[in-house]
Amino acid sequence: MPSRNATPPKPALPPNLAGGESGRSRPTARRSIPIRGPFPWQAMLRYLGGRLIPNAECADGDVFKREADARLPAVEIHYAPARAQLRLQICGAANAAVIERRARRLFDPDHDAAALAPLAEHPLLRPRILATPGLRPLGCWDPFELCVRTLIGQQVSVRAAQSLTARVVERCGTLQAGALAGADLAQIGMPGRRVAAIQNFAKLVSASAIDLNADWAELEPTLAELPGFGPWTCAYLAIRLGRDPDAFPVADVGLMRAAAAENPKALERMAEAWRPLRAFAATYLWFDLPARPAAPDTFPGE
Fold first, then answer.
1. Alpha-carbon distance 266 to 270, whole Å?
2. Among residues 7, 56, 69, which one has the least CA distance to residue 169?
3. CA 202 to CA 179: how far, in whole Å?
4. Which of 131, 136, 206, 280 is the most buried (most CB within 10 A)?
C-alpha cells in the first residue's frame, strides 16, 4: 500500500462541490452519525488526499466531498468534535440513507479504539498508537472504485497511481464499470496486462457477474480467480473492503520499510505478535511512512 509522503496536488473541485447558485438552491438533507472516539479526522483526510477519485471527490480543508453521479446526490461530510459526530450535508433528500451507509463504510464510526490495547504493547506500534489514537483502516465509498484504484496502484507510487487514475477518468469520464469496460485505454501509461485486467473486471461487474456487496468470505475467492487480483491486492482489499481485522499483505514494500523488515518472511514473523489485529497494525505503519525518508513505494506484480 502506498505511503502518503508525496501527496499530489488536490484536484479542482467539481462544479457540484464548488458551491455556486445551483448548489445553494437545491433542497438539502442533513444527517448526523455518532462517532465512537477518538477520531483523528485530519489524519484520515490526509491519507485520503492522495487517493481521491478525480472529478468525483475532494478532501478540502476539514471537509470530505463527493460529487453527484447518475445514482447519488453530492454530499459534504464534516466532523464536529464537540458533539463527536460526522455531519452530512446532502444536495437533495433522495437516497440520503444510501449516502449515510456509504459514509459509515468509509469512516467506520463504530471503531473501538480500546480494542487495540494489545497492539500498544508492541514497541514498534506503541508510539504510533499514542500519537494518533483512534486510527482505523479506512473503508471505501464505492467498492468498484476501490478495486480499480488498487489495480492501478500496483507497482507504482501514490503520486503515479493518482496521475494514472486521472488519465483513466479523463478517457472514460468516470470510474464506473460500464464506462471502463469499453473504453480505449491504449497508451495510457499502464502495462497492457494491467489494462486488460481492469477492463476484464469492469466487464464482469457491468454484466452483474460479480456482486461487490457480497460478504467478503464469498467475494474474495471470486476476485482471487481474476487476472490482476494476486495476494497483495486481495490482502489490501481484505482490509479496506472486507474489513478483515487480521488481513495483512506480507509482501508490501511500505510495511517492510516501516517495520525495518528485510523481506516478507521477516515481516510475517514479526506480524505474528499482532494477531488478530494485523490490519490495524498495518494501518499504523502505513500512516507513519511520511516520517521516513521519501522513496517510491512499489508493489509486487500481479
1. 6
2. 56
3. 8
4. 280
- Cβ distance 75 to 97 under 8 Å? no
**Bridge partner residues of 66 (DSSP):** 57, 75
Distance, in Å, from the CA atom of 28 to the CA atom of 93, rounded to the nearest integer, reads: 6
Output 69 or 116, whichever has higher pLDDT: 116
Quick one: residue 108, left, alpha or beta (phi over 0 = left, psi -120 to 50 = alpha)?
A: left
Sign of the dihedral through C-alpha 238, 258, 145, 49: positive
Task: Kindly give the residue spans of alpha helices, DSSP state H, lying in 173-288.
Answer: 177-181, 192-206, 216-224, 231-240, 253-258, 264-271, 278-288
155 vs 209: CA distance, rounded Å: 28
Q: What does the radius of gyration of the chain's CA atoms come to, in whole angstroms? A: 19
What are the structural domains of the chain? 15-110 (3.30.310.20), 115-138+243-296 (1.10.1670), 140-228 (1.10.340.30)
pLDDT confidence of residue 183: 95
Q: CA 121, CA 115: separation in Å to the nearest integer?
A: 12
Grid coordinates belonging to 236: 489490501
As a whole number of angstroms, the distance between CA 298 and CA 288 comes to 17
C-beta neighbour count of 48 within 10 angstroms? 19
In tens, the pLDDT along 122-178 reads 999 999 999 999 999 999 999 999 999 999 999 888 889 999 999 999 999 999 999
Distances from the Cα of 143 to the Cαs of 116, 162, 242, in angstroms?
Answer: 26, 17, 10
